[in-house]
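Lecture 7 notes: from sequence to structure.

We start with a single chain of 674 residues. Read the sequence below before looking at the structure.
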Amino acid sequence: MKGLSGGGGDVFKSTTLIKILAFTLLSIAFFYFGKHWSDGSQQQQLIFFNSRQNPTTSQFVSISPNFNKIFDLSSIINDTNSIPPPAVEVVLSPPPPPRPPPASVVENMGIVNENGVMNNEFKIGDFDPEVVENWGVGNETVDDEGSGVHRFRVKKFGLCPASMREYIPCLDNVEAIRKLKSTERGEKFERHCPEKGKGLNCLVPPPRGYRAPIPWPRSRDEVWFSNVPHARLAEDKGGQNWITIDKDKFKFPGGGTQFIHGANQYLDQIEKMLPEIAFGRHVRVALDIGCGVASFGAYLLSRNVLTLSIAPKDVHENQIQFALERGVPAMVAAIATHRLLYPSQAFELIHCSRCRINWTRDDGILLLEVNRLLRAGGYFVWAAQPVYKHEAVLEGQWEEMVNLTTRLCWNLVKKEGYIAIWQKPLNNSCYLSREEGSQPPLCDRHDDPDNVWYVDLKACIARLPEEGYGANITTWPSRLQYPPDRLKSIQVDSFVSRKELFEAESKFWKEIIESYVRAWHWKKFKLRNVMDMRAGYGGFAAALIENQLDCWVLNVVPVSGQNTLPVIFDRGLLGVMHDWCEPFDTYPRTYDLLHANSLFSIEQKRCNMSTIMLEMDRILRPGGRVYIRDSVAVMDELQDIGKAMGWHVTLRDTSEGPHASYKILTCDKHLLRA
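Now the structure, written as tokens:
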């Protein structure tokens, strides 16, 4: 038994060894066989067939470097035939495409939704405190130098200190005001802009607890306390029905110092005194000087009258801020030593109710400025104590006023109670018939009454155009689209008539706004305060009115272009002259929409584009929108600046298509908290 088992084990061991050797030799033979056909002169390679089935794809053949080549399979399998059979073409199916990643959840944080459509349902923004702490740290755009494109480098702008929440650069320049030689004529309330290099270089933060403004028309009567957190005006003027505090809101009963029973009753009284005023037809554009919280202008809006309310940033420093928060047209402005930034014959009615202005000082130079601004045949309404009180000092002031207005050829058409109304003449005939040497004199024939940018007040009577321009405008609303006579006074370098340019611009913006309303649903937006930063003839504003968008537009005419302000006012719109290389005279967070057409491609020759963009951010409300229509050449830089300010920016094609020389940059501003 022992010998059998030992012998069997040796035989088994010998057989196993032979099998291993045979397997090894066979493997080597196949290896060299395969290598021969892979490296042979005919460049034939092995083909590997994949028999695994995929339920969603057909069976496929996979090879490594020989994708989609033609092979003679018979010569590989049997090389004995001298004449190879026809070649067989193997068509290789591509591998299945990778599965797409799961769709991300889209959160609507801006004006454009996931389908690229303008959307009114967006968040102003819950802000991460950590983002605020790190805001402005180490973020900048990258230059594409490798591609030969040198892009603008912009670091993220930091937040301004909380003390600058209501900062108006040209009116809060303490250093410049301190250096003034005199302030007795109100010089400290005029523009004193920071020197070059000392301008705004940060983002003005909102007050703590800032909320999305109450929409119009509710905002006429109430605004959030947290958006304008200043109680002094309510404490000083609460008894005169200007403004009251009710829990978390300011309420506006509609009263004023001279009309404590409400603006509506006051307006009825004026129109009853002089029916020719005809609010909303003859009187379309008005100016309220020393406006308080602008209830006079707020209630005229329902009568189709656009009233620009102005007041200085004085002891009642937030009155204009309240007006703009209410959704009423307003600007910070003082009538002191320089012309106001509006053209001659701009307003059909100018109103002053207890505006604390001495109209007869310095030979009536302030009333002469009112005369320049007042349209031929227009009305000056004065509600003040000298009109009705019988005190010696006040009676003396009344006599001085009557004497001055008589020398200005104004006609006192009505005096009733505490209101006096004068009318300006329609032409120069009264001025020319005065005795020689009468004061104040007529201005020199070469004086341009529409030249207003940093121009001193002049102690002379602005001449009316001999042709009657400005006096013969049509009534509202037909005047909106009627080419006014003052078109002829504008210098235009064109072979096309001014009337044709006017009509072409109106048609262009009408079509553009109609497309915005149709495609981007502008009527769903809560637009109220709108600024057109380069207004031309006012076609953009006119198109908004024709599309029945319930908003008002301040049409800005840059000093670098043609002065089209007379035409804008003749159309029944509001406007102002401005240099965009300097800050604008308004409070932060006052506009819902800023529109800029071809502004940057022109102004980049004069000033830094980031200067303009930072000013836009200052005056734009959180949740506000910006539409920039400009040359492709400036869009990269504008996008970088917008991102550096924390805006959500989107570059869009115009209706002319992707290869047009113009693009549209849409932006929306999120809420940043300090």
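The longest strand covers residues 620-631. Keep this in mind for problem set 3.
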